[in-house]
Every structure is written in structure tokens, then in C-alpha cells.
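Tutorial handout. Part one gives the primary structure; part two gives the three-dimensional structure as C-alpha cells.
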Amino acid sequence: MQKQLIYSLFLVVLLSACNNKPLPTLEGIDMGAWKDDKNGCLNYRSQSIEILIRQKEKLKSLDQQEIVRLLGRPDRNELYKRNQKFFYYLLEPGVDCGVDRQSRKLSIRFNAVELAKEITIE
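Part two.
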């Protein structure tokens, strides 16, 4: 009985350790300020666009939970056909900030197994 308990505990620890791979770092971007700039209204994200463009490949193959841990909750999300999902992070002040214009956005397309497959700035 005690052997089974130790084995089960070891297995749980092992599996949870496998799930916590380190997140990539986006050099030059203060992720706290990024997350606080909801809808891009504070202009921090707009100052980070060029840095983000150079490093966007680091986001590929991350799952949805990892993206949320790294970038915060998306400003918008969309379900699409074939179990695809899109996360959108607004990069500039726009309609949501009381500014009469469309803002650029970071778009992340997830495939059916919830891995980021396409990263674009629109």
C-alpha cells in the first residue's frame, strides 16, 4: 500500500514537471506593462510593435495556456471552423479606448490541438 502511494506521488510530480516547460522571454518588452495595457489604450503595446515583430516566432507552438501566462488574457478571441481558435491582442488605442480608428492587433491562430500555428500583426 505504501509503495503504491509513493509510486503514485512520484508519477504526479513527474507529470506536473513535464507540463511546466519554461516560457520564452520577449527581450525588450516589459510583460507586466504589456499585460496592464488592456486593449492597447495606454500606448505601451504600440511602442513594442517592432520588438514583437522580430520575436513573434517565439510564440509558435505554445499552447493557449502558455500564451495566456506569457501575454495575459487576450483582448478578444474567436472560434473558427475545424476547432481553430484565434486570440487577438490590440496593439494601439482604437474604438475600445474611445479613439475613432481601427487599431493594429497581434493575431494568434491555434490549431485543433490548441497549439499556436500562425502569428501575425494586422
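Part three, for discussion. The radius of gyration is 18 Å. The chain has a mean pLDDT of 89.
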